[in-house]
Structures are given as structure tokens and as C-alpha cells.
What does this fold into?
Amino acid sequence: MPLHLLEAQNKVMAVLRVTVLGPRLGAAAPDLPAAVHRAVLKGCRAPWLLEGIGILHTRRRLDVGAEADFLQDRPAEALSQPVLVMLHTGLGLALSRHQLERLPPGAGASEVQDRLANLIASCRRASRSGFEAATLEAVGLVARCFFPRHFTSLAAGIAALGADAARLFWLGAGRGLYFERRDPWPGNAAVARALARLAALTLPAAASANAVAGFCLALVLVNMASPAVVSQRLVAATQAGAPVALAAEGLAAALRVGLQLAPDCPWPRRLLRFEPNERALRPTWEVLRAEAVAGLGALSGHPEQPLHELHALFGAVPAAAELAALVTKQSSAPFCPRLPGA
It folds into this structure.
């Protein structure tokens, strides 16, 4: 199958798992732990399904006028940290849609700012202690994908709500950039156009860096089963101006999500061992892979770093020996960094 069609299929399936299949799976389960168990059994597809389950349970609370704080309830106590991260992302997606869709088309800057402040407060209030970052990151994704008419005002207002909120907003906005409906047909040119739209915003350096890393994170997560797509598009991103270090950060973050949520999934390992057929791609891909492996090595050496500290997904130190072995075709030794309680 041509790569652009394969990527389009991957995108459609990712969206369906979050918006349809995840909520349907959750609705068929008697409670949240049972729904999570069924999602985890789906292996490689678990991250998207768990987001959908988070959306479902959030909407159930909001529909009856209750606080969406279900992840603070006792049934959530037994869930692992990686699972809670994805549920909190779903929580943030649903809360953001619920709050921002109340904005009238002609809302002024002050009205947008008030709504955004209320949304950020709701995200913090609904989140389990320590998982606020995963909920807040979804605000930027929803703003970019679903509320383009208000995006400029939302982006301007987020800086007044704290450095952490702004960092996470732009990480999410970068993820949303990959899913934008204005440019649905995938390919190297689509990557270049998306990054050009980002550059046109003339953002501060920190906001731009977070958005680029978020874009690359989404690209890899969606296409992890298709290494040829990932290598082509990440190299295209660097050719379009994305710093190699940021593309590697997105790659490392996506790999870590896959390794922790689906330890038996072959996709991350297959991606790490992949060698592009096109010789022109190989030098940049090898650098991207090496830097991503180094970032994963930093994280595997510090298991106390929780997955929900999204900024801690990124870093570069000498790679762990186990990770270095993953990129050699001769090695079949598994490596799966785990968190306490995972």
C-alpha cells in the first residue's frame, strides 16, 4: 500500500479508537476497572482505547451536572500510572470540548480568557493528584483541532495562566496540528505545510519547541505500526525545519508510551530496528533513532520519574545497554521500562 494511504488509514483508525471504539468498549463494561482491563487486552491499540474510555466517563458525569472527578474515586486507585495518564488525557479532551463549545462565534478576548481560566481550573480540580499535566495537555489539542476561530485568543490567554499550563497547551496544540482537518491528506508535503503554519505563528522559542515535539509525538504514535511512514515523515519534518532534537523527543515519548502501556506489543521494537530502503533517509533516521534511544535510556535509568510528567519524557544521556541492543537486528532481547505499580 502506498505510504500516504497507509498513513491515512492509521489516522482514521486512531480517531475511531478514541471517539467510537473506546467509548463503546467502556459502555459495555460494568465499571471503569473492567473497561480498562478490556482495553489493555487490546495490546498495541490500548492507548487510544483508554483515551476513549476517559472521554466516556467524563461525559457521563458532565451530562448529569456532576464534577468529572471519577479518577479520584476508589476504583481508580488500583490502576497503573500509564493507564491513568491515558484516562486523564481523555478526561482533558472531554472537558475541553464541553467548556470551549460554549463560546459564541463572536466571543471577545476577555470572554475567551475567562472561559479558558475556568477550563484550566476544571482540569486541575477533576484530575487525580499528580496527573494534572496529562489533563491539561489535551486543552491545546482540542483548541487547535476543534476551535480554530478562537485559537489565537486561546493561545494569547494561556500565557497568563502559568508557565506549566502554557507548556502543556503548546505540546497539545502540536499534537492537534497533526490532526488538523484543513490538511487531512497525509504525506511529506503535509508535514511541511503543518510546520509552516506553526512557524507563521511566530511563537516564543519554548512554545514552538513544545509544539514541534507534540506534532512529532502524534505522528509517531499514530503510525508506530508503519515504520516506513514514521521514518519518511520524521525526516521530512527535519527537512522542513524541525530541529532533529525535537523530532527525536517526539519519537522517544511515543516509544515510551507504547513500551509501558503494551509491553508485549511488537511495534516499538520493530520501529527501533527499522532501516529505510531509501538511502537518503538513513543518515537522519539513524541520528533520530540514536537520540530517541538516548532519551529512553535516561528514563529507564530513573524509574521514579512518573510517566505523567510529560516534560520528563524528553532528555538525552548515554543510552542504556538494553536499549542500544534493541536497534541491532541480531538482538531479540526485550526491553520494557516499567514504572512502580505498572
Q: What stands out?
A: Residues 10 and 140 are 22 Å apart (CA to CA). The chain has one domain: 3-326.
